[in-house]
Amino acid sequence: MTKDLCVLWETDPESTARLEALARAVSGRAFLCTAFHPHITLGCYLQVEEGALADYMLSFAREISPFPLCFEETGLLTPTVAACFPAYEGGLRQHYRAFHRRFDSHADRWTSLANGLYTPHVSLYTGPGEVDAPALRRLSDAFSPFAGTARALALSWVRGEEDYEILLRVPLGGGKDI
User: Fold this and answer.
1) What's the pLDDT at 125?
2) Residue 152 pLDDT more than 70?
3) At a CB cut-off of 8 Å and minimum separation 6, what does 30 contact?
4) What is the CA radius of gyration of the chain?
């Protein structure tokens, strides 16, 4: 069966907590919506065979080790999406290119290697309209650069806007899950 699926980098617990705190700051709310799941998208694949992508992701994740991330800035991905941007270097760049050697023909325009539009980020907040200046100020005040670790890959089924399900989570290098 083909589905719209995403492959996601999962971060260490400390980074996840920092990203959640940033999401609360930009939203101006003490609590996050239940659908918030901090991650860095490695690729979104349209109408791809779930089993084939899952098998590839499993073998890929077992062959690489956890690697460092440097969350270096925040800002707008689009006028309606506030994000945290990791440095696009080291393992993040290397593994993106390696992973996309397969299934890139199914990748969406934003994550495909062929299109060259990939911008690694963690979406923190999506507003009903443009993210306003007070929200950006709260985000800026709450942020300072921090280091983290990519610890796992996850396979997510995108069922609709803001509707997803994590189907599989695999620790990098065969280690313990996060």
Assistant:
1) 85
2) yes
3) 24
4) 16
